[in-house]
Design goal:
heterodimer, A: about 110 residues, four-stranded antiparallel β-sheet, 11 strands, globular, B: about 120 residues, six-stranded mixed β-sheet, about 0% helix, about 50% strand
Chain lengths: ~110, ~120
């Protein structure tokens, strides 16, 4: 299994508070991704990174920012959490374009 | 328009039988890739199989095979000799293009497979 961890695994927070989710990999893979999973929508890409300090927006990036200051860590920040951001968040990593391995997920509830 | 369509919200199969999960896709890019993932009730996403648009042969991984019909834009997952542990949600996903900035995957809504003893 690819070495990917996500922290925290569960979080409950209040509307308007900032939240940061962390994805950590031990595989030294170049690409890292953040997705969210909601009922009826499958998984949707939020942001991704193709190298240290190289990031770009995905399909549902509004309200989210990311940072990647070193290869192994990719942070997802909700600057001011809203109830619509209640979801399960998955991080994924890949070395090439023909693979993508997912972390265990973070369940975020915004009350 | 949906880029990935999985028309079967739920499927049932008897243990030890084969099952086909449907996936159709829509792209005008000549270079693309198709992925299948399994999500058991525990929630993790497990990579199963990959097929590139230029691959000449259908991909296979153990009991999983991908029935790739390019002209019909379909990439169905075939699971042979189903096991109880195959009960899960299955997602089809597509990567378009071969940009060096990465594989941005578009997912279908999934098919819930139940294997009956």
């Amino acid at each position: 299994d690819a070495g990917i961890t996500q922290s925290p695994r569960h979080k409950v927070t209040e509307t308007g508070t900032p939240v940061t989710l962390r994805c950590h990999q031990t595989e030294n893979h170049r690409y890292m991704y953040w997705y969210r999973q909601d009922p009826g929508h499958g998984l949707r890409l939020i942001h991704y990174s193709y190298g240290v300090k190289d990031t770009d927006k995905g399909e549902v990036s509004d309200g989210y920012s990311v940072s990647r200051s070193k290869t192994e860590d990719f942070l997802l920040t909700l600057e001011s959490a809203t109830s619509s951001q209640t979801s399960v968040y998955f991080c994924a990593i890949a070395q090439g374009l023909d693979e993508q391995y997912f972390g265990p997920g973070t369940r975020l509830t915004v009350t | 328009a949906q880029k990935i369509t999985q028309t079967q919200p739920g499927m049932f199969v008897q243990e030890k039988e084969a099952v086909t999960l449907d996936c159709t896709y829509d792209t005008s890019d000549p270079s693309y890739g198709l992925f299948w993932y399994k999500q058991p009730s525990s929630g993790e996403m497990i990579f199963l199989i990959y097929q590139g648009s230029y691959d000449q042969q259908n991909a296979t991984e153990g009991r999983y095979s991908l029935n790739f019909q390019k002209a019909r834009k379909s990439a169905n997952l075939v699971i042979s000799a189903s096991q109880l542990g195959d009960s899960a949600m299955y997602f089809c996903a597509m990567r378009e293009g071969r940009v060096t900035s990465g594989s941005r995957l578009t997912f279908g809504e999934g098919t819930q497979l139940t294997v009956n003893p």
